[in-house]
Please model this.
Amino acid sequence: MSRRLKKVSIQEASLLDIEGAGGGRLHTLQSKLLEPNNSLAARILADPDVAVFLKPFMRQPTTVRAAAEEFKLPLQTMHYRVLQMLRAGLLEVVRVEPRRGRPIKHYQATATAFRIPLDLVPHTLLENLTEHVSWKSQLERGLQKALGESDYESQMVVYLNEDGLLIWGSRLDDYEGDPEFLKPQYPATLNLWTGGLRLDRADAKALQRDLWEVYEHYAHRGGAEKYVMHLGLAPTPDP
Model:
């Protein structure tokens, strides 16, 4: 099978490149890129809710306790995750710190990037990943929580705008001048979809670059709050 999938994960600010590939044992493709050809590694890496536990160990050598504290998890739960990642070849012990009693092990990821043969990824996980199920769920729950905690009106309006497009929104005056939701008293949320944008290729490429540059401008701020964001642009399949 020679399936190929590329997607940008805005949530984790990383590029995920998964390719169909023939396989054998683990082998290093580049100094920081590894292709783990085993089903356990594929299941871990293809599930965003599980793969996230690898992050601390990709940054630097880390103990189980330190990782558990970062995720606010019980030590036993984090220890189970670490054992699974060790079995999958995604982690290795890089230092053992002697002490009275059981020594402290420091673990590190075997690479900072992994490429997975799609044939090893369970169909349900691959389907969830390609359909962005985890990110969509986080965005929807975040929108509901933020808007539920504000006094922004809970309603829907449907109308024809000046470009002849049928618009679904929450307030009519959001699309007349400066939108109401941009005012300081409302949460920093945005949920905008349009299937009627008319552009020539040059403008579409310019918009693509603008969207990417806006994301890059804010991606590395390291602020106090965590946000989930989705940017998407594609020609409509039907003319």
